[in-house]
Every structure is written in structure tokens, then in C-alpha cells.
Amino acid sequence: MTDKPKKYLIDSNVLIEANRRYYSLDFAPAFWNFLIRSAQEGNVISIDKVYNEILNGKDNLAEWTKNNFSFAFAETKKDEKILEFYSTLMKWALKQDQFTQPAKDEFARNKNADAWIVAFAKIKDYVIVTQEVLDLNIKKRIPIPNVCSEFKIEVIDTFQMLRNLNFMFE
User: Fold this and answer.
1) SS3 label, residue 41
2) What residues form DSSP beta bridges with 27?
3) How many helices (H) and strands (E) are present in the chain, helices listed first?
């Protein structure tokens, strides 16, 4: 019995950090072309909420996303199972004593993509790719890896995704 190939769901910080820090659009086009190819092949996807976060940046990344990568963002609000799990996440977050009320409010804010990413990944069986890290002591925000740890969703960083997908600079 063979395992089905993993599919990766990218958080907005994957694109933002890559562009700002180590794979800027003008410096590392191979990275961005690889993302496009990976999305065309069905290995990489993101969601509408991430698309909106990127476009709100009104920068070269927003332009690149709109012109080259807009096809790679799935809708979240038309899938009843995603909506149901999103509700489960909201109830879970409210019950957590670890996090401050402002952290819970931010997690529940409709424009915040984090809970939607987790819900989509859980229902569609995707691995989440984020630059956030698990922090069991954090109080002021609810990191994606903390939520994923609770709900048994795999989380990796950008570099692990690139290794898993056999990325090579061309």
C-alpha cells in the first residue's frame, strides 16, 4: 500500500517572508517559478483569505500574486465541512486559558486567515506550510502550529516543503 503524495497549504507568511528576506522576487525567480509549477501540478495551494492578506500589502508581492499566482487560492466559505470545523476551532480557542482575550479576538477576526488555513488543511488533508513555530508558552497570539498540535495536523516550514518537493535552483 503506497501513501498518497502530500499536498501543501501555504500561509501568507511563507510568501511574505520569502519576498522580504531570502527569495525576493528580483533575486530568486526560480523559487517563484517553482511555486507556480507546484501549484499547477496540484502540490501547493493556498486559500482566499491568504490571497486577501497578500493583496492588502499593495507591494510587488501583491502584484506578482495577482498576475501569476491567483489561480492557486481555494475558496473556504463554500464548503460546509470547512465551515463546521472553523466553528470547532472558534469554540476551542475560546476555551483556552493560555491565551489572552485579545489573542482569541484576533484568531476569530474574519479577515485573519489562520483559523481558515487550519480548517481547510484538516478537512482537505493538507500539510500546512508556515514560518510560525510551536510555542507552548505564548499568550499574546494563537500560532498555527499550536492549533495544529491540538488537532493532529502536520505543520512544516518553507524549507522543509522545498526539500519534500525536491526544489533545486535552476
Assistant:
1) coil
2) none
3) 9, 5
